[in-house]
Amino acid sequence: MLSVRRLVAIANAALLMLAAADEPRPNVVILTGDFGSKENARLLEPLRASGTSFRNCFGSSQSPKTLASWLTGCHELRAGIVDTVGGRNFIRPAVPLVSDAFKAAGWQTAFFGTWPFGEAIPFRPEDRGFQEVLVDADGRSGDYWGNNPDHPWLRDLKGWSQRDGKRAAVLETETRRWIETRVAAKERFFLMLNLPKGSEGSAKALLEDLDRSGVGANTLVIALGTIARESKETPDALAPLVFRWPGHVAAGRVVETPVAVFDGMPTAAALCGVSLFRDWKGDGIDISGLGKEPRTEPVERSFFFHPGGWPADQVVDRYKSDGYAVRSGKWRLSGLDLLDVSLPPEHRENVFETQPDIAMRMMTDYGIWWQSIRPAFTAPARIIVGDERQPVTPVTWGDWWPSRESTTALGPVRYPDQASLRGLLRELADPARSSSLPSVSGVWKVHANRTGHYKVSVSKLPPGADPAERESLGKLHGGMAHARAGKYEVKTPLLEGATALSLGVDLNEGDADLEVWFEGQGAKDAIFGAFFATIERMGERKMPDPDWKPQTKENGGEK
What we know:
Radius of gyration: 26 Å
CATH superfamily of the largest domain: Alkaline Phosphatase, subunit A
Number of helices: 13
Strand order of the largest sheet: 5-4-8-1-9-11-2-12
CATH topology of the largest domain: Alkaline Phosphatase, subunit A
């Protein structure tokens, strides 16, 4: 028989469940961008006045890393972002995104603006829980070639198309249209808008529209600075973070408690009553109690920082101690420097030798944390080819891993954006300069969904490049083209003046390292990789699997 105490507990739990069911579940608008600029900073002023601002929110000085932390609730290294300058910024598919959680809970989801995480499956926003997208890559390797913010090319679920007007204005119009459609259909929505430069006016108008229509009263607005500004203690940079939800988040409150960008995912989920996935293992915690009454402080914790950016073919443990930092309470440890950051900068002294117990504890905590994130580096995220969702898979030089054909070849670290690549192509087109250039090549790490014969179409410039630029920068010299997948290689002669070439390779289902390179383009022994390619499955294998074994009496055949 149940005791009276047990019955009371069950009754109280039932009442709490009923109360939770009556709680409103808000729309969500997340604004991300460079809020360190004067223009975008103005957007934060009214939000800070009507919401809770976190003054000590740790982020990263690199936009993709901060954005990845927000989307995943994980430190960016755990999420898979290890390159600080723009190449291979892939969020590992096994790491769920906040959009996955809200989509599963019934919200209509969308991502508009700059998406820096790749244009191939499984890294596109539509692969990661966003049902509607309107994106570019802001001049990075996956962007439409030569994209112009005055007449932008943007990609939606149907593909790339050029739009009339400035990029910020186009995004404003499409964002309003999407929200109006959701409101008219009485659908709860989750919108993430990664603001391009110069769009603060559009974002402000959007917020005013929400408030004027009455939708803003039940909309959780979150503003996050994706390019954090270096604090006095780099690399632990500070990112502006503001939460606003009238009646649910305190207005005008400034929080000094240290928090991190990865706290955003569990906090937004908690405020909206969204359950995270059962096996979710993130670094963030729910900090919504800091913006409520009565205020609740989280337990004191340590924050860990590492700039990343080590060469992709190196053992990561070699770089474990390069540029790291740990923050724990008032203490900051970096290398052999231990500082009390509660003191004014001019009064801080290195107390590493006089406080050995604190230093050792923080170093031990960092070592444990490093081992916890290390598995994320051992299995690189791979681009999927041969998938019906994306029959023609685009890859670029920005997706390269270090070349297998040249140990001295430069890769994406030096040339992460289109402007830098255009400069390299000018050097390649100049006979006097190309003869002294080192090799430039790299490997695409792919996963073939199906065994078959794949057409790899390669070029120095993509098909969308201006014809005049293709004529001046895109021509190939006579020589030889090679394609290697693992230890098997195909090659074909290059025609002088060609601007594109297709090669056929057989791939088995599973992982493969694919590299395509050209000889005869510059220095005698230099090779140059295909900067752009598309990969398409054409049918079954053309040749027998080279891993086959001859039939013998021992394995069931005749000798």
